[in-house]
Design goal:
The structure is a homodimer.
Chain A (H helix, E strand, L loop, with lengths): L2 E5 L8 H14 L2 E6 L1 H8 L9 E5 L10 H9 L6 H10 L5 E4 L3 H12 L9 E2 L2 E3 L4 E5 L9 H17 L7 E5 L10 H11 L4 E6 L1 H6 L4 E3 L2 H27 L2 H10 L1 H10 L7 E5 L4 E5 L5 H17 L1 H16 L1
Parallel strand pairs in A: 1-2, 1-4, 2-3, 4-12, 7-10, 8-9, 8-10
Antiparallel strand pairs in A: 5-11, 6-7, 11-12
Chain lengths: 340, 340
C-alpha cells in the first residue's frame, strides 16, 4: 500500500484540519499515512477519531516553519541535516523511501525551499514549478509556474511544458494534452521577450503545442496545460481568486439589498451558487505538485480545511502510483539530449 | 465648448455603434463631435437621428486600420503624413488643435502605434501606457500598463505611477491616490527583477506609494492606481474578464439545470445579476486613456456598443477640461529633474 507523509503542522488550523484530513483519506483511499509534527499536539487530536482499521503513524517533529521563516534563516533551517521541523522531517521520509510523497498546507515558500534542499531537483531541471489546476468551462487547466520562479529562461519554460504535459497525462489522465504559453495576444509573435524566446523551443519540441494563449483560452478550457513564468502565473492565480471573490460577494450584496423578491430568489438558487463556490474552491483540488523536485511534493493552501487535506492526499496517492516522477526524469533527459 | 474627434470606423459594429454613441454623447454631455471615417457610410447612419440641436461634423477618411494591420505595414500607414485612415485623420485633428481628444474603439495596437507616430510622446516619456479601470469592491482601480509595452524598465514603471496618479486626481477626482506595484507577494522584497528594481524608485518618490499589491488588493479596492509592465497587466486584464465570464456562465448553467426552484430563483434575482454584469462590463467605463502620448487619446473595446462610445466621449471630455495633460507634462519633467 502507498504511504504518504503529511505535514500535521501545515494548515492555518493545524493540527486539527491536517489530522482530520489524514484520517478521512486513510479511510476513503486505502492509503497509509505518516503524520509529521509535534506529537504532543497530534496525538490528542488523533484520539478523537476511530483509527483501529486504518494505518496512521506519527513521526515526531517538534519545530515548525512558518510565514516568518524566510531568507537565510529559512535556507539554514531547510538545509541542516538534523532539522527537526515538520517539513524537513516529512521530506526526509520521502528521501529515505519511507513515504512516496509529502503533503503540506504550510507556507509555499518554506515548502519549496525545503523540498529543493532536502530532495534536490530531477537531473537537468534547475527550476521546479508549482503547478495548480485552474477551473475552466470544460474542466481544468494546469498552469505552471505560479510562484516558485519569478524570473526564468526559455529552457525553464520548455521544462515546465514537459513536466506539465507528463503530469496531465499520468496523474490527470489527459491523452496528448494541449499546451499553450500565456501571452498578451493569441497571435504568434505577441509576447514579452521571454515568450518570444520560448516560443521556438516549444514549437520545435514534440509537445502538442498550440501557441500563445490568453485568459479566455485558459479559463475557456482550450488548453490542458498553460506555461508561464512564476511571476505572471502567480499574478494570474491571485487575480483569478480575487475576481471570483469580488463577483460572488457582489452577487450576495445585490441579492441582499434587492428587496423581497431578490431575497427569495437568493434562497432558491442557494444550491446552484454552492456549485459555483465548489467550482472556484481550491480545497476541491487540495494541493498543487511542485514539479521538478526529485520526489513527490504537494503544497496546499494555508487555508486548507480537512477536505482539502483529504483531497491533497488523494492526488498524492494518484501521483505515487502513476510513475509520473520516472516519466519526468526520462523526458527531461531526452529533451536535453535533443538540444545538445 | 469642448470638441472630441471620434473614430466612426472603430467598433466591431462600425459605423452604427460609433455614430449612435456620438449622437447620444453630444446630446447628453454638451460636447461638439467630429466623426472621422468614410462619409458614405457615416452620413446615412447619422441621418437616422435628430441632430439639429447638436453639433456633429463629419470629416472624411476613406481608409480603415484593422486587425490585419500590423508590423511594418502598420507603421507605414500610421506614419505617412498623408494617411487617409480614420485613426490618422482623427489624431491629426487633435494635433492641429481642432479637437481636444480622440476616441476610438478600433484595434488597440493600431491606435497605439498611430497615436505614437502622429502625436508623439510627452517629453521625457518613452513608453505610453494604456490605463483602464478595474472594478473593485469599493469602486475602481486604474491599472497601467495593460498592453502597450510588454518589456519595460524601472523608469517606465515610475512614469506609469506618475501618470496614473495624475489621471486619478484630475479625471477621477481621487485625492492623493494610493499607488501599488503588482507583485507575487505583498511583502517588500517579493517580485521579479523588474519589481525589485522599480520598488526603490517608487518609494523614494513623492508618490503615495504603499508597496507591493496582489489581486486581492487591486480587486478589493485597497489602491487607486496599480502599476505593472504591459505584459503582466494585459494577462491580468484578460484573466479577469475570462474569470468573470466563466463564473457568470456557470451560474446561469447551474440555475438552468437546477430544477424549478432554481429557475424561479434565477428570475427573481435577474435584476441583481444585471447589476453584476454592469459592474464587470467594460462599456460602463467606455475607454481607457493612452497616457504619455502628447495628446488625449482614448481606446475602447472592439466590442463597444453605443453606450460604451457615449461613455468614452464623456471621459474624454472630462479629461479635456481637467488639464491632465499639462499636469502630466509638468510632473514628468520634475521627476526627471529629481533623478538627474
Amino acid at each position: 500500500m502507498i504511504t504518504i507523509a503529511v505535514d500535521a503542522m501545515g494548515s492555518d488550523l493545524y493540527p486539527k484540519a491536517d489530522v482530520e484530513g489524514a484520517v478521512l483519506a486513510a479511510k476513503e483511499y486505502r492509503v497509509n499515512i505518516i503524520l509529521v509534527g509535534d506529537e504532543n499536539l497530534i496525538k490528542p487530536e488523533l484520539e478523537k477519531y476511530e483509527t483501529s482499521k486504518i494505518n496512521i503513524q506519527v513521526v515526531h517533529a517538534p519545530e515548525i516553519l512558518c510565514m516568518d521563516d524566510k531568507g537565510l534563516s529559512l535556507v539554514l533551517k531547510a538545509r541542516r541535516p538534523n532539522s527537526k521541523n515538520s517539513m524537513a522531517v516529512g521530506l526526509d521520509l520521502v528521501k529515505a523511501g519511507k513515504a512516496s510523497a509529502f503533503v503540506t498546507a504550510g507556507n509555499t515558500g518554506a515548502a519549496s525551499v525545503s523540498a529543493y534542499f532536502r530532495l534536490g531537483t530531477i537531473p537537468g531541471v534547475d527550476r521546479p514549478a508549482l503547478a495548480p489546476v485552474f477551473p475552466t468551462a470544460k474542466g481544468f487547466c494546469i498552469v505552471l509556474d505560479v510562484g516558485a520562479n519569478p524570473d526564468v529562461k526559455p529552457i525553464n519554460i520548455l521544462q515546465f511544458a514537459i513536466m506539465g504535459k507528463i503530469y496531465a497525462e499520468k496523474v490527470r489522465n489527459i491523452e496528448n494534452p494541449t499546451i499553450g504559453i500565456i501571452s498578451n495576444g493569441e497571435e504568434a509573435g505577441k509576447g514579452n521577450q521571454l515568450v518570444k524566446d520560448s516560443y521556438p523551443l516549444l514549437s520545435s519540441s514534440n509537445l502538442n503545442f498550440i501557441g500563445n494563449v490568453e485568459g479566455k483560452e485558459v479559463l475557456g478550457g482550450k488548453v490542458d496545460v498553460a506555461v508561464t513564468d512564476g511571476f505572471t502565473g502567480n499574478v494570474m492565480l491571485k487575480t483569478s481568486e480575487a475576481v471570483a471573490k469580488l463577483i460572488i460577494d457582489k452577487i450576495k450584496e445585490n441579492i441582499k439589498s434587492g428587496g423581497l423578491a431578490a431575497n427569495i430568489g437568493g434562497l432558491l438558487i442557494k444550491k446552484s451558487m454552492g456549485n459555483i463556490k465548489k467550482l472556484m474552491d481550491p480545497s476541491e483540488e487540495g494541493a498543487a505538485p511542485l514539479l521538478g523536485i526529485n520526489g513527490l511534493v504537494f503544497i496546499g493552501h494555508g487555508r486548507s480545511n480537512s477536505t482539502a487535506i483529504k483531497n491533497a492526499i488523494r492526488i498524492a496517492k494518484q501521483a505515487s502510483v502513476s510513475g509520473v516522477l520516472d516519466s519526468i526524469r526520462e523526458s527531461v533527459k531526452e529533451s536535453l539530449e535533443n538540444i545538445d
